Amino acid sequence: MTNYQGEIRDYGLAAPHGPDMTARHPSMAAPDFGMTTNEKQIFDYLLKPDDSYNEQGVYWADLPLWKRFQFVRKVDGE
Question: Burial of 41 by CB count in 10 Å (0-12 exposed, 13-18 middle, 19+ buried)?
């Protein structure tokens, strides 16, 4: 049984700060974390496959509906 103290509730793990609304948090200011160019290319290849992101680096599901259809047709045709 969980022991509550007053109004304190356990909502599970919480981030140390909220979402990065300013894009100035260290992880977003330098998202490569000091990787070499070769290391970054390897991670990009693994984490951003060509069949999920377009040429501008936009995830296919984030594209407008018509561009999604175009992207899926292009990937299916390859």
Answer: exposed
Angstrom distance (rounded) from CA 5 to CA 31:
40
How many angstroms separate the CA atoms of 76 and 78, rounded?
6
- Residue by residue, what is the 3-state secondary structure of 7-44? CCCCCCCCCCCCCCCCCCCHHHHCCCCCCCHHHHHHHH
| DSSP at 61 | G
Q: What is the pLDDT of residues 27-74, one digit of tens each?
A: 555 666 678 889 888 888 888 788 888 888 888 999 999 999 999 999
